[in-house]
């Protein structure tokens, strides 16, 4: 199936599980795309107040970030390699990470993330950059490596377990490579995060779930090769170097179709990354580390009707609403869009008035079902990022914040039911 942006995507149909007798809030990994609702959704009203999220506070103060271990920047731009990238100093406009004070309620973090960031004909990359700026938010844009590789050079890609140059998605047009480069530079300068969505988007048989550690390393190495040598591969000498070093700035990613995390985590240890967003799904609880990396899963949100919960991604709504058809019944579009908004907001309200666990949203730059999932996200950004105490941040900024908290505080926070609003003096000591 193709979209106006030239991409092709497939996803496994979600499964629903029968209702558990009890729901125990724990770090239980569920390889599902929906499950029976078990948490009370709280419905409150709250006066809106513009909350600083991205902020203008300079570099993040993450406890284990590589930037804290490096010498101070000398103020000189360093062009790297063939001129495709450069180092322009620590990223500006990042959230300043600070430990909670005793009794302090945590911020309500919301992370909007995008798989396969490409500026296509729909111009959704630039749209969400502008929306982020308007609502003082930062986002995570997961770049697919071959989106900077011309189709004429596809033989440079050697995907694991597949023929040379093959991919499960379309290669970009030359013009889309140029516009994507412009958006990547702007996104970084705005304070957003650039992560990785790897390269060929292979799922199912011979996809990431079947790859060895060595094959995952090959995929990662090729990602770096494509993004660090786009000038050589494209011949675009008229475009400036990207204003960041991928080796410093890429600290995590999301695997296509959420497959292959066990071996991917082992492979990641060679690259100094800090988090992974490839978990298939989990409850709305405070994050924990897995194999030394922060684990940021998609989350199970209450689905309208209360019969089950669905993952916080447009794919899941697509399958639940139109059985995986990207162009379903147009007469249903308004209803489906509102269902998506209601589900996201139910998940948000559950933790905003409860445990304050972060809300993770993962979407794609696609026009499925008339673009209703993009329109839904537009509404959710406006309804959440403006609320008092909310910080709409990138995964990297969230990792920075988690790194400076006391481990025992995070452990107590992880024990909270999502809808539980505790006496914070007993949690944050």
UniProtKB/TrEMBL annotation:
Record's signal peptide: none
Compositionally skewed regions (Basic and acidic residues) per UniProt: 93-103
Keyword DNA repair annotated: no
Organism domain of life: Bacteria
Protein name as it appears in the record: Lipoprotein
Region Disordered, annotated ranges: 50-103
TM ranges: 21-42
Keyword tags: Membrane, Transmembrane, Transmembrane helix
Species lineage: Bacteria, Bacillati, Actinomycetota, Actinomycetes, Kitasatosporales
InterPro entries assigned to the protein according to its UniProt record, in alphabetical order: CE4 (IPR052740), Glyco_hydro/deAcase_b/a-brl (IPR011330)
């Amino acid at each position: 199936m193709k979209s106006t942006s030239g991409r092709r995507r497939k996803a496994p149909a979600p499964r629903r599980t029968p209702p558990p007798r009890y729901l125990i809030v724990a770090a239980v990994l569920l390889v599902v795309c929906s499950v029976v609702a078990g948490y009370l959704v709280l419905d409150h009203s709250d006066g809106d107040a513009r909350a600083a999220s991205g902020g203008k506070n300079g570099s993040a103060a993450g406890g284990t970030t590589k930037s804290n271990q490096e010498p101070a920047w000398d103020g000189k731009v360093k062009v790297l390699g063939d001129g495709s990238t450069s180092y322009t100093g620590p990223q500006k406009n990042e959230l300043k990470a600070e430990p909670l004070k005793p009794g302090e309620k945590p911020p309500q973090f919301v992370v909007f993330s995008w798989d396969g960031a490409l500026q296509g004909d729909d111009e959704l990359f630039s749209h969400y950059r502008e929306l982020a700026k308007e609502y003082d938010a930062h986002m995570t844009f997961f770049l697919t490596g071959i989106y900077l590789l011309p189709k004429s050079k596809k033989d440079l890609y050697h995907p694991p377990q597949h023929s040379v140059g093959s991919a499960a998605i379309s290669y970009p047009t030359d013009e889309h490579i140029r516009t994507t480069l412009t958006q990547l530079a702007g996104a970084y300068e705005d304070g957003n995060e650039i992560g990785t969505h790897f390269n060929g988007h292979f799922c199912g048989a011979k996809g990431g779930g079947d790859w060895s550690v060595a094959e995952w390393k090959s995929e990662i190495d090729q990602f770096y090769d494509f993004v660090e040598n786009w000038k050589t591969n494209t011949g675009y000498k008229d475009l400036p170097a990207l204003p960041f070093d991928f080796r410093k700035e890429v600290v995590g990613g999301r695997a296509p179709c959420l497959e292959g995390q066990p071996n991917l985590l082992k492979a990641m240890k060679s690259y100094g990354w800090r988090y992974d967003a490839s978990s298939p799904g989990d409850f709305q609880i405070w994050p924990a580390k897995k194999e030394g990396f922060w684990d940021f899963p998609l989350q199970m949100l209450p689905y309208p009707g209360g019969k089950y919960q669905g993952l916080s991604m447009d794919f899941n709504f697509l399958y639940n609403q139109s059985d995986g058809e990207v162009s379903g019944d147009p007469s249903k579009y308004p209803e489906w869009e509102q269902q998506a908004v209601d589900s996201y907001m139910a998940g948000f309200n559950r933790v905003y008035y409860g445990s304050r666990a972060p809300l993770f949203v993962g979407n794609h730059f696609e026009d499925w079902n008339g673009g209703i999932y993009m329109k839904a996200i537009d509404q959710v950004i406006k309804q959440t990022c403006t609320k008092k105490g909310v910080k709409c941040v990138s995964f990297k900024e969230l990792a920075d914040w988690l790194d400076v908290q006391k481990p025992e505080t995070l452990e107590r926070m992880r024990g909270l039911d999502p809808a539980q609003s505790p006496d914070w003096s007993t949690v944050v000591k």
